[in-house]
Each structure stands twice: as C-alpha cells, then as structure tokens.
Amino acid sequence: MAKNLLSRTPKIHIARALLGAAIAASAFAALPAQADSPVGAAAAGAVPAAVAAKQQPPVEGTGDVKPTAAQVLTLAKQQIGTTENSLGGGTKFQKWYMNSQRAAETIARDGGNRQAYLNAAWCAMFVSWVGENTGARSTIGWDAYTVTHAKWFKDNARWGVEPKEGSVVFFAWNGSKSLTSIEHVGFVVKDNGDGTLTTVEGNTGNGKVEERVRPKSQVVGYGYPEYRA
C-alpha cells in the first residue's frame, strides 16, 4: 500500500491493509520477486525460499539485459498523478496484475479470484507493474502483498538497510523493523541526507501515484534490484 510522511493516517493505513487481507482471504509464491496485497497475510511465508525462487519466471524477451535504476525511476515518475477510483481501484496497475500470470499463482497460493485484485491495495502492484514494463521483473519481482515481496528480496540475499537509488523501500508506519509489519512499498529516488527519503509510490494516502518525502525511521528495509550500471 502506499501511504505518507504522512500520507493517510496510520489508522487508515492499518484499516486499508486489513481490508486488503480480507479481500484476499475471501477472494490472493513468494516467488521471486510487487501494498499491500489483496490476499491473506497468513499465507505469505507458506512457500519455502528455494521453491519460491524457482517459481519466478524469466522476463520474456529481455535476455540478460537489465535496465538502469534511472530508467526504472523514469517510468515510475511518469505515472505520477494516476489516481484510483472511488472504490479504491480501477488503475491500470490493478488491471494488469489481475490478468497476469502472477495473479494466478497468488490465487493458487492464497485462494480467491482475479476480480478481487481490481479494488485491492495496489502499492505493490505499482512496483510490480514498473518492473514488468522496464524488463526488470526478474530483478524487481512481482507480488500484490508487500510482506511476500520483501521476503523474496531477503531470501535471495538482496535485502539491506542502506537506501540506494532505485531500491525498493518497504515501510511500517509504527517504525517496526519486522518484515511481517510491512504496510507499504515504493521506490527510492534519493536519500536526502537529513533523515528522510524522496520516493515515488503508488496507492499513497491520496489514492495516487506520488513523489513523497518520508522519514527513514518508518523504513523496515530495502530490496536491491540488480540494475545495469
């Protein structure tokens, strides 16, 4: 999910996360990795890392060519202003994910149906969409549940506490450093050197893709895609 330096209030964040989980539970492998997910958090750790890594399909048509961090951030920034509808959904990111191979995999993992993603919290789907459309799916990953996405980075030894340009940043509004507390995800644009980050995120408190400035105290950790230099 995406929410603020003070996007929506923590209570709203939590409510949105719970709603996403409820949708998923009724309706959503940690495969290699894209805020929150529409489907049950309980299933997040159900797939062993070794199995999850094998489940991540290769990026089609890209060979070994990876994008640069700047290219990924350029596409992410081009989405600024994209807004959800009154139901909290209907974005191209949700529509893409709903029809993706990954949605089928997460439904098999967590239950539910494709339609549930259309109005589910979409910060992770935004990150996943950017990865897909820059040819970086295999290094950015894809999921609709932030916790699963973060665990994929950690299981693949691409997790840390240092912000880097283009890294995938995971937030917990209460300052927890536990992966299971993650509530939101976005991309790091830069470390401002004053205890804050500039980020670009989907599903912010305003229900949009926005550039934000957030305190590093709310960061759980960072996933590091393998970008081309």
TrEMBL record:
| The keyword Signal belongs to this UniProt entry's keyword annotation | yes
Is the Nucleus keyword given for this protein?
A: no
Q: Which UniProt keywords are given for this protein, alphabetically ordered?
A: Signal
What residues does the Peptidase C51 domain cover? 98-229
Show which residues constitute the signal peptide. Answer: 1-29
Q: Pfam families in the record, alphabetically?
A: CHAP
Q: Which InterPro entries match?
A: CHAP_dom (IPR007921)
Any idea what this protein is called? Answer: Peptidase C51 domain-containing protein
- Report the source organism: Nonomuraea longicatena
Q: What is the lineage of its organism?
A: Bacteria, Bacillati, Actinomycetota, Actinomycetes, Streptosporangiales
